[in-house]
Amino acid sequence: MAHAAVWNLLGQAGAAVVLAATSAATIAIWVPLIRRNGLRWRRLPWVALAYVAWALVSVLWSNWPAATLLTWTLLAAGTLQGLFFAHVLTWQELLRALDAALKWVMGLSIAIELWVALIRREPLLPNFVSPPDGFDPHWYWVRGHLFDALIGDRIQGVVGNSNYLGILCVLAFAVFAIRLATHPPYAAMQTVWLALTAVLFVRSGSATALGAFAGAFMVLLAMLVMRRARTAGERSRRYLLFTAIGAIGAVLVMQLWDRVLGMLGRDDSLTGRDEIWTTVWERAITHPVHGNGFSSPWVPWDPAFDGWIVDHGLSVFHAHNMWLDVFLQLGAIGVILMFVTYAAMTWRAWFFAVDRPRWDLDANRPYSPISMLAPLVVAILLVQGLTESGPIMLWGWTFAVLFSFKMKLAPIVGVGADAPVTGKPAR
What we know:
Low-confidence stretches: 421-427
Radius of gyration: 22 Å
Order of helices and strands: HHHHHHHHHHEEHHH
Helix content: 55-70%
Shape: globular
Oligomer: single chain
Mean pLDDT: 89
């Protein structure tokens, strides 16, 4: 989740070594497990894997074949990790792993912001290089604004980007809260982590993250309301209620769009995204069926992308919309594959959370808090995908593969395929 920190710390070569090492370690661990215990091949997320295969095939017509092969390697590595985590970790172990990883991201973000603000006392560039003449402040890894009270002074954290830091904070809210609901040891410290995350979330000042938080919160309320329905009729009436609320909300947002953007401190161009979308669309429509060739992210030193769309002196490396990005790269076929992947994941995640756990005649077992994890993650990714391309690459894509596979492998928390090694149902 902090891949940018590895890049900023170790550079391109160092990041490649880390990627190769972690992928090799995963293969070394996973292959013996598959040989010993087998793999339920029919449960694999085949549509997501078809998208990965289509991305590789696109090298045959790609306008940037070197970038296609390079970034497909990243896609394949992320897919591998998602499949691996889903197969070897129970839901409880997955929650603990995400909890630990996000604490590292939040903790390192606080630490590096404190170091830059209090000890270094000047902004930090990636790889600790000296600032060149005429550089733009957006090139900084960390700008050291943690204690600045001005509204425009956002922080970047260890990931080096305010928007990605904000999204990770929203994800951390969900994971930390669910972990707290499972009554972990040292529960008081879990509330401390929630408070630290809140500080980072507010100081990141990300409108995308705020939208993701609102979307996840609405999904949470809907799940809680639906869980209280006792009959099929009650469920139907509540679905109608959700539909009506959604329609009214959409109308209000369209009518008050300019005012909403003003409240978020953004202009009607969404910080220049409309110009980016227009430029991407003009290139994407030239090959609407099969696309121009896979590249997620766009490789900024490839001639096809170097200087194509420039923001603050930097070549933009994604379309700032996951669907438009897929359309540019893999055409309508890629969009269909991605849509089916996320639609299937959304469908499974919703009923994974609102249906009571049941494997026999007992229909009154309590819900597990962990069952809320998948729909909240899906909601966060889908909202992020409206203004960012994160859900189709790196950790965003890993999560899409992970949860797609995990919900097919273990549709009930702590039972059956998700049971611990002892075979006893988990609490």
